[in-house]
Amino acid sequence: MPAVPKKKTSHSKQGRRRTNLKLKLATLVPCPHCHQLRPDHHVCPTCGYYNGREVIDVGVKDRKRLERDQRNQQGR
Question: Considering the entire predicted model, what is its pTM?
Answer without folding.
Answer: 0.56
